[in-house]
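Reopening this one. Same input as before:
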Amino acid sequence: MQWRLMDLDSAHPQLEVAAETSKKGQHRYVFLHPTAVAWLRYAKKLKSELPISDCALRRVRDRLCVTLGWPEWPQNIGRHTGASYALAHSRNALAVTEDLGHIDKVLRRHYRRAVWQETAAEFWAVLPPSASGEPISVDFTSAPQTQAIQ
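Same output, byte for byte:
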């Protein structure tokens, strides 16, 4: 992901997925949920760098695993979680499938999880401090250094 590929300020914020970074080699545009837009604007305000280096990403994931008590970072957890909650919240399998660059059969096999619609609404209601007024923080500096997960 790169800031230059995001349009966060239009009436319909979207992310451009370049063919060379797409799992399926498909160039497409993905409309962003308002919650995602709020978090991306917050990250941009904090001058977050994109793209995130593999080393930095691994370090954050390792620390999150320690904090959460997980033995390792589940592969594609962000994509699977986002897809499952988007499907439960929007109930629009076609739109979620297109955003992921898949076909419906793949969505239902890999991404659909048992998520209640009310739980999805709560998930999408978690906003950054500037939008909700309540601070949301994780202290990554106090977590011990761990070996990279293979």
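So the earlier flakiness isn't reproducible anymore. For the record, The helical segments are 34-45, 54-68, 77-90, 93-100, 104-111, 117-124, 129-132.
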